[in-house]
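Predict the 3D structure for this chain.
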Amino acid sequence: MGIIQVLDETLSNQIAAGEVVERPASVAKELLENALDAGATAIGVEIVGGGIERLRITDNGRGMSPEDAVVALERHATSKVRTSEDLGHITTLGFRGEALPSIASVSRFRVRTREPHALGATVVAVEGGHRRAPTESAGPPGTEVLVEDLFFNVPARRKFLKRAETEAAHIQDVVTQLALAWPQIAFRVVKDGRTALDLPRHDTLADRVRALFGRETGDRLRPVTVAGAFSMEGLIGLPTLAFGSPRHLHCFINGRYIRDRVVVGAVQAAYAGALEKGRYPFVVVHLRMPPEALDVNVHPAKTEVRFVDSGSVHRFIHRNLVDVLRSDAPVDAGEGLGPLLAPPPSPGTTPAPEPPPTRQYSLAPEAPPAAPTTATPETPDAGLDAHRRRIFDAMERLGARRAVAGPAAPAVQPAPRPVSEPATSAEPEPDPEPERPLPPTHRPELSPLSQWRPIATLTPRLGLALAAEALVLLDLPAARRALFLHRLRAGAAPIRLGAPVVVDLGPADARRLEANASALARAGFDLEPFGGGSFVVKTLPAGLEGCGAVDALLRRALAETPEGMPARLAHAVVEAAPAAPTPAELLALLRALAPFEAAVPRWATLLGHGELERRLARGVASGDSTP
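Done. Predicted structure below.
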């Protein structure tokens, strides 16, 4: 007997299921796509035990006849592909014909379906790949698929599943993506007997986004409308609406959610220079193009595609998104996707040359010059003596020269003489300290922060203070951020609101709030459920008072993982700070930081008095100083 054998049908189905069924969310995705292909206008999802114990998908679509209900559970059975030529013109979400038999081979499976004109429904049950005889039942038109005890017969796969809450969250993410792709379809999700998501049919994508993510998010988006032979429409967030992960990059092609590198890369390139590293925008973009311009059959989960001309697609997306971000009005005229996708030029005409690809854009306003060459900075307070005033003026001239000339190469300093070498009368008396500047890593010892004397605010970021041993440049945003984080780590008492505030969250934010309730409580948020997606906020973390609306602060906290939440909230403190604090406000900031900063703080740059004197002397000797 040979060693090569043909696998039995049950085992081959279980192996095939490994490509289609990864977790309960994979099951939900396949069944929901089938419901959409069947013309459903309302879809219900019931989740028990994270979808591992039970997952039920109900739709009001066309349903199936008794014969089709039985054949649909055969391998490679589909109503969407007839010939090999059809693979180049895929217009449906599902087409492979592997979902139902693969799911049924690793679960206790039942499908009940009824066509609109039929008198009754047909029920077909499968347990671990073994199909039972079909039966008749009562039921509404449409299809109901029940999947129970997922992977009960494949324990090697079941042990890799996550907690029920995690698996349920993945299912809700799948529903959210499809709800954004199909706003005209109603979706309802019931998790463990409670309604987790209830979306009616919406007329516009903007209404669906507000229902899912809240009105505040919806109001910070710009519409995209690019019409032509190929189209792009959707909503994109301003650079101020950014997140620590790419989970809000919602990209669709012909109604299919994708995570393609070409499309996602073009979207991120459009925001290049406008977002900090590691930050991602909020984007909902729908692309429409002929099915022959792409291949959707390149990934088992059908989340990746292959374009005939990926370069043209990248330029098309990037160019139009940049145009929208740079303007206050939506784009109304599209550009073609290159020779393959754009209509051919009229006979006898020469097409205009295509502009070169855009490299990078900065969406932030241009920064003013580092220091004006003629204007005089804010004068220190009148209590400074003449010696310190000369130091301040020397710093101004030094900064002005660098702003005009740019960074200069470090000057070569003469090697200092050995200490034992006597000085001759012909040579000038050496300085009491070495001539070369201090190494960047050296920081002289400082007096306590409580003894620092604030002088002035030079720019919104730069403050000036005076210690007994040095002049101190203060990075004001970094200092405020450090103060908030110090208080948070020290467990400072939260700020109790004068009156509790009711915050209405979208389903996605409400789900994240429930998952991160303990982290929010540790940060200082006192929250109570108020029904549906509403919560009552009683306290805020210390330092967030006066930093904006309570609902905005809570959404900002939910926009990050528990580990990234403190930094995100600290950013809100920086944004709400005054642009030009007075010396009194600087003094209050330093005194608040004094109990936490025992060593030289990172947000302070020190310029010792001796170093400033040497720079002043060199400037006078070179003739650059102006009396």
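The domain at 9-80+93-199 is CATH 3.30.565.10 (Heat Shock Protein 90).
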